[in-house]
TrEMBL record:
Encoding gene (name): dtd
Compartment list: Cytoplasm
Family matches, as NCBIfam families: D-aminoacyl-tRNA deacylase (TIGR00256)
HAMAP family recorded: Deacylase_Dtd
Protein name: D-aminoacyl-tRNA deacylase
Function: An aminoacyl-tRNA editing enzyme that deacylates mischarged D-aminoacyl-tRNAs. Also deacylates mischarged glycyl-tRNA(Ala), protecting cells against glycine mischarging by AlaRS. Acts via tRNA-based rather than protein-based catalysis; rejects L-amino acids rather than detecting D-amino acids in the active site. By recycling D-aminoacyl-tRNA to D-amino acids and free tRNA molecules, this enzyme counteracts the toxicity associated with the formation of D-aminoacyl-tRNA entities in vivo and helps enforce protein L-homochirality.
Length: 145
């Protein structure tokens, strides 16, 4: 399971010119689900996303997590994160989870974060989405478990 997280000032997801999810500061989480991912990996990654200290404290050090900084999450499914790009000039998606499995894991990830009292907005699984963001920093990290 892979999460590409970006610290944002604001972010939104549109589907067919309608906003389906947006936040005013926090983390944009692009989530990729791979074959073999399970609930243990999901919880470990979700906890890491929510506890990762990439927001500035009073001394301007990256020392606060998204909750401590008063932010929220915008979680967007992104199967291309599971691409194998080692060979050739065309990505292979053989390591990506089947869409039905990936959707279930995506929904569980969102639910786990919400159950942890995080404010979570989402994209629309499997849709053609347009994602807009203002990356703060820019600060971007690739987290994997």
């Amino acid at each position: 399971m892979i999460a590409l997280i970006q610290r944002v000032r604001r972010a939104k997801v549109e589907v067919e010119d309608k906003i389906v999810g947006q936040i005013d500061g926090g983390l944009l989480v692009l989530l990729g689900v791979e074959k073999g991912d399970d609930d243990a990996k999901l919880k470990k990654l979700a906890d890491k996303v929510m506890k990762y200290r990439i927001f500035a404290d009073a001394d301007d050090k990256m020392n606060l997590n998204v909750r401590q900084a008063g932010g929220s999450l915008l979680v967007v499914s992104q199967f291309t994160l599971a691409a194998d790009t080692d060979k050739g000039l065309r990505p292979s998606f053989s390591s990506a989870a089947h869409p039905a499995e990936a959707e279930l894991m995506y929904e569980k990830f969102v639910g786990y974060c919400r159950d942890s009292d995080m404010l979570v907005a989402t994209g629309e699984f499997g849709a053609d989405m347009q994602v807009s963001l203002v990356n703060d920093g820019p600060v971007t990290f690739n987290l994997q478990v």
